[in-house]
User: Which sequence fits this backbone?
């Protein structure tokens, strides 16, 4: 068994319970903590979340935050450790400065991150490449899993 990664997956105002459940399942597989920032578009104990996480949901290590400000106050992350992944990022996820103690942040499925967060952290935004004009976005759980494994590849 390899050592436990220390980076965290953070969902900012997730809207779709199935995506949160699937991302939770990835967190269990990689032994990661899942940080959730309210508001949610669903109840965290909703059956759809558990269904997507299957019987692994009970093993997800979750911490919840009331707001972005609550997250910043309690976690006290260094600015360079906050890595945001959004369709409108200017750099590709391959180029993110991954580290063992970084935070991989993903915005809500339809709203993304608030403009003030995007403005404040613009240089920390990354995207996954999409080469077809027929695709507007990728599924959040697929993106989170892809980015988590890319992050881990850098140090495990």
Assistant:
């Amino acid at each position: 068994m390899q050592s436990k990664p220390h980076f965290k997956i953070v969902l900012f105002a997730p809207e779709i319970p199935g995506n949160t459940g699937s991302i939770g399942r990835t967190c269990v597989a990689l032994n990661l903590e899942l940080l959730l920032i309210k508001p949610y578009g669903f109840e965290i104990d909703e059956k759809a979340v558990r269904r997507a996480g299957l019987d692994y949901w009970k093993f997800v290590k979750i911490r919840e935050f009331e707001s972005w400000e609550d997250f910043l106050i309690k976690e006290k992350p260094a600015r360079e450790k906050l890595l945001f992944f959004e369709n409108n990022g200017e750099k590709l996820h391959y180029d993110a400065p991954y580290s063992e103690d970084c935070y991989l942040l993903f915005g809500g499925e339809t709203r993304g991150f608030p403009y003030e967060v995007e403005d404040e952290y613009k240089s920390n935004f990354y995207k996954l490449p999409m080469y077809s004009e027929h695709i507007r976005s990728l599924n959040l759980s697929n993106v989170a899993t892809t980015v988590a494994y890319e992050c881990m590849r850098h140090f495990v």
The chain has five helices and seven strands.
